[in-house]
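[step 3/7] inverse_fold.run input=structure_tokens len=203
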């Protein structure tokens, strides 16, 4: 409901109360109006938080953002920490200076790896795993699953413990994860043949 519809509904409710001989005082009306306004504001905040903040960027801004993430990862630096350090030290952030100038800290804090993963086609896997990341793995890693059938795909939360790069001509990456039950599992070909069997955790 938009504000005009909410106001009309409240006014109708006030009129019904008056017609039933239970008229509200001006103070009671004001309390109801404030409560509804607060509820509406909370819903708007929830809707804003549930949408991907990267959708607010232009295509050119997202492209600059992906390039920045890749550059930081090539230097083995966390892109978000580097960006925040630039802000704290009042350093220019180059191609992503627009984030500080136009979007700000609250916008930056909303970004989670799962948001970046939603743009996988654009990012070309810009976001690489690191120790401590929270991901979800599919039971397809250790058992035969079918989209329809008795054994369907299920997802389990886990933490990345170790990343291993193998330069055998294919640059194969594997990682070891720990599931919430304490079990550890090695994912071979984490960016290639097994990419389908893990996803970023929404947490």
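[step 3/7] decode complete -> sequence:
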């Amino acid at each position: 409901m938009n504000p005009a519809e909410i106001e009309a509904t409240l006014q109708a409710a006030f009129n019904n109360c008056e017609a039933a001989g239970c008229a509200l005082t001006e103070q009671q009306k004001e309390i109801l109006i404030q409560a509804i306004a607060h509820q509406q504001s909370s819903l708007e905040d929830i809707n804003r938080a549930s949408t991907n903040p990267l959708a607010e960027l232009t295509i050119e801004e997202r492209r600059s953002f992906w390039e920045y993430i890749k550059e930081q990862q090539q230097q083995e630096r966390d892109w978000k920490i580097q960006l925040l350090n630039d802000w704290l030290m009042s350093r220019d952030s180059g191609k992503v200076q627009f984030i500080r100038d136009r979007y700000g800290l609250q916008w930056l804090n909303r970004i989670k790896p799962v948001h970046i993963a939603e743009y996988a086609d654009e990012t070309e896997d810009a976001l690489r795993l690191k120790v401590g990341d929270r991901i979800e793995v599919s039971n397809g890693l250790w058992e035969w699953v079918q989209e329809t059938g008795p054994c369907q795909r299920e997802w389990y939360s886990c933490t990345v413990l170790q990343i291993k790069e193998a330069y055998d001509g294919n640059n194969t990456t594997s990682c070891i994860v720990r599931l919430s039950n304490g079990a550890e599992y090695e994912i071979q070909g984490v960016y290639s043949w097994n990419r389908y069997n893990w996803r970023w955790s929404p947490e």
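[step 4/7] annotate
The two ends are 30 Å apart (CA to CA).
Helices lie at 3-19, 26-50, 59-74, 79-88, 97-110, 113-117, 120-123.
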